[in-house]
From TrEMBL, chains A, B:
It comes from Tianweitania sediminis. It holds the Pfam family EutQ. This is Ethanolamine utilization protein.
């Protein structure tokens, strides 16, 4: 692999699997490219909810808007420039608010492969 | 581990090893915490230069300012909301510019352990 730069405009957004809401993910690096991590951008419409049990460690950096994540540890909320780490095995409910949200994410290992297992 | 949220104010910044410039890194999750990735924030003063050969895959999300990264593939430049992926094994020169930069980063595996090997 080589050093690469990515902008949100490089992401081909697809609806997150298993949900029908206005939540989209677009990988820019994943299992097709030979790196150990998946890198991508996420886009959340306003007032969306996504519940899942993490099959990978997922690190989200909020770029725009705000996300709240509820888990057994309580609820955390992050705005621009803040990070939420969702460890593998945790059951989480991710919520966007009135302004929606845009995120950058890194997962280890590749989330699409982990979901397919 | 539990779900956690981090802001740049949570990072205890230390000068990056092997350099004497105005470049600091502050891990918020690393080998002490049981996750497979290191998560942190970086801070670059203006017009700084850091050259290194990557011992890990490093994903930087630029939060403020701008960074340029030169490698055998050429030079890429990223501003707020953009990502630079520096794969393991690449030799890179990271440059900040007049406005400095703040980043969020994720490395796999843990960069402090990889440097100690």
């Amino acid at each position: 692999m080589r050093v690469q730069k990515f902008a949100v405009s490089d992401a081909a957004f697809e609806r997150s699997p298993g949900q029908t809401g206005d939540i989209f993910a677009g990988n820019v690096v994943d299992q097709r490219h030979g790196a150990p991590v998946t890198i991508g951008f996420g886009r959340y419409g306003k007032n969306q909810t996504l519940e899942e049990t993490m099959t990978v460690d997922d690190v989200m950096v909020v770029l725009e808007g705000r996300l709240s994540v509820s888990s057994k540890a309580g609820t955390v909320s992050a705005g621009p420039g803040e990070i939420i780490h969702m460890p593998k095995g945790e059951t989480v409910t991710i919520r966007s608010h009135e302004e929606g949200a845009v995120t950058a994410y890194v997962t280890y290992p590749h989330w699409q492969e982990a979901r397919a297992d």
